Structures are given as C-alpha cells and as structure tokens.
Amino acid sequence: MDAIRVCAEVPGSSKPTLTESTSRTETINGSHEFKISGYSLAKGMGIGKYVASDTFTVGGYSWAVYFYPDGKSPEDNSLYVSLFIALASEGVDVRALFELTLVDQSGNERHKVHSHFGRTLESGPYTLKYRGSMWGYKRFFKRTLLESSDYLKDDCLLVRCCVGVVKSSTEGPRSYNIPVPVSDLGYQFGKLLESGKGADVTFHVDGERFLAHRVVLAARSPVFRAQLFGPLRNKNTKRINIEDIEAPIFKMFLHFIYWDELPDMEYLMGTDLKWASTLVAQHLLAAADCYALERLRTICESKLCEGISINTVATTLALAEQHHCFQLKAACLEFIALPANLKAVMETDGFDYLKESCPGLLSELLEYVARLSEHSLASSWNRKEFYPDGCDVNGRRVKQRLH
C-alpha cells in the first residue's frame, strides 16, 4: 500500500494545502476443489491429453484446473502427471498468486502443496498474458509413486486450487465516514405479519386462518390490489377464501410477501430431500404466477432449474409451459433431449402427465432431439485434436483458446 501526498499553493496564503490519496494493492482470493474420479481409466489417454475441472470465478475472471494423467510433455515419456491452472476467460496481463494441492486422503494431512502464498516472490505475482495461459508443473508427481500413495483412494484424486487475483485501487481523502446499517425493512414487515397487529384481512385456506394487512398485500401484488381496492372488488374484503393453494404453500407464499424472501424450507418441511424442495417450488411458482409476484416467480424458476432430474423434469416442463417460463422450459427440453436421459424420462409418470396436459410440447421435444443429433454428427465429422501447448496432432501451430 502506497500513500501519495500532494502540496498545492493557494493564492493569498503562505501555507500550502495538503491532500492525500492511497493506492491499495491486494488479492481477491477464491478456491476450487476438483475431484478426479476413475484415475485408472483416465491413465493412458495419451501425452498432452487432459481432464479439466468445471470453470470457477475469482476476481472477475474464470479459471479451470487441468490434469494430465500421462504428462504434458513428450520428453517426460509419461513418467509424471502434470497439473496446471489456466485462465479460462478473456484477460490481458492478469496478475495472480496460485496454490495447487494434491490432498492426502488418508487423513494424515501430508498434502503435496505448491504455493505462491505466504512467501516472498522475487519477480512478484505470476502474469497470465491471454485466455488459455497456464501456470503449474509438468512434473507435478511421479506416476509410480502417485499410484502407490495415499493421494489415490478408491481410484480417485482430490485437487484443491487457490487463486489470488491481484487488484490495485486508489482512494482519495475522506473527511468523515458514517456507517449505514443494512436495511431491515423485510424484517420489520415480517414481524408485523407474525404479530397480527392491525390485520384487516383473513385468509381461509384448507380450514386454516391467516391474518394479513390489505395495504401490504396491495403494495406487493397487482392482483390483490385489484381484489381489495379495485372497482370490481368483492363487497366483503375482510374474508378471502383460497381454493387452489394448500395451506403450507400459502404460508410460505404469505411469508414471501412480507419478508421478500422464502423461509427455511428444510425447517418447515422437516426434510432436506431435493425432490421435496422441487415439489414446493412447483406449487409456489403457480401461486407466484397467479398473483403476479415476479421476483418469487423467478426464484422458483431458478430452484426448479437446479432441481431438474429424471423424475422431476417432465412435471417441471409442463409447469413451465403452463406458466410461460421460457428459460425454464428451454432447460427442461435440453435435459430431456440428451440421449442418456430421454428413455428414462419417457418411462416416468411425469412424462405421461406431460403428454396429457401439454401434447404440443412433444413436437418441440422432437425438434430438440433432432437438433442435438445433427450437432453431435457435425461435431464428430469436424472435430480436430489439439494439444494444450499450441500444436495440433500434425505439429502445426494453432492459436490456443479455451471453450
């Protein structure tokens, strides 16, 4: 951190004024754990061939871990495994610190670590010039030693990667600093719901009663606003019967209206099973669409997208079609169209429901399957093999990019 002082002469004054600014250079740190399952099957894929982690983001850049079971360089003759971290997004002269750790899976904490952190670097942080630039070790570990070590367990390796992106910023003078508390508006409205004070609306749902405040309901939902204050409102707005939402779902729905966030579903439902969370999100999505709560609708779409599986995708697709959730619909169609999933999904009860409730979706699904098949055929026809050091299989130089 460097502080810079600037003196300036002020007309009519014999004393110069003093201003200050501070340059701060620090690292934005993040880490990723990469599990390499089936090491014995990956071994023998060839020198320069690799398995890569999913990309992860640190400091505004995407990164990926590359593991070479047979080594990266031909001169090592497959005697070593290689391990690298690569810049997976566009960037010029990205400066960073790195740490690659091969985890000791015996519990003895004898990890193999190569790290920039916690030591003095003569030339400073490592600089990556462009997308695809790498840092790491061609001879990270000798293969014969690795295969008889505690790093390999149940044919799996575990790699931890830490990245510290170096960022600099300059701050000018501040005459004062008053911390502003975080907004607790949702908390205040939530407590109002819990207390029931001033409630002037009673919802009757499946034999249960829920107290609420019409001004809050109207402010949050245009449907409630029309129902409670519009020219066509019911005469008796103090009692509202809800026919199409179950009581536990309505309780969560009302919680969101006041708190602007969903309650802890695992606590309310007494389970952490993913299918249960997906089922609740399906019901809440229908309620959100009915009462035009766009934020709740988007939250439910996101949760349903995360919960897509063989057993849930057909029902979720039907729901996405019925409530015009186009992004969720596309994700479901893409999942079902995969050859590994299609047959299994077609054997579920949800698929039978999909055919009955939304028969028009079957033609769209066929289009997705056909498009995927065409893409796979074209890819296999045009595919070329490239080595990460910048050469193709024939030794020609190519511009290296990550996809």
In short:
Helix content is 35%, strand content 26%. The protein is of the alpha+beta class and 403 residues long.
Total number of β-strand segments?
Answer: 14
User: Terminal Cα separation, in Å?
Assistant: 37 Å
Predict the CATH topology of the largest domain: Apoptosis, Tumor Necrosis Factor Receptor Associated Protein 2, Chain A
Strand content: 25-35%
Textual characterization of the structure:
The protein is an alpha+beta fold and 403 residues long. The protein has 3 domains: 25-171, Apoptosis, Tumor Necrosis Factor Receptor Associated Protein 2, Chain A; 185-307, Potassium Channel Kv1.1, Chain A; 329-385, no CATH class. It has helices at 39-42, 143-146, 185-195, 214-220, 222-229, 247-259, 265-269, 274-290, 294-306, 313-322, 326-337, 339-346, 349-357, 361-382, and strands at 2-8, 17-37, 51-52, 56-58, 61-68, 80-87, 94-102, 112-115, 126-128, 134-142, 156-171, 201-205, 208-212, 239-242. The strands form 3 sheets. Strands 1, 2, 7, 8, 9 and 11 form a 6-stranded antiparallel beta sheet that branches. Strands 3, 4, 5, 6 and 10 form a 5-stranded antiparallel beta sheet that branches. It has a 3-stranded mixed beta sheet with strand order 13-12-14. Helix 10 packs parallel to helix 13 (349-357). It is extended and about 85 Å long. Residues 1-8 and 379-403 have low confidence and may be disordered. Pathway: Protein modification; protein ubiquitination. One of its GO terms (biological process) is cellular response to salt stress.
Features:
14 strands; disordered N terminus; Apoptosis, Tumor Necrosis Factor Receptor Associated Protein 2, Chain A; 14 helices; 403 residues; six-stranded antiparallel sheet; alpha+beta; Potassium Channel Kv1.1, Chain A
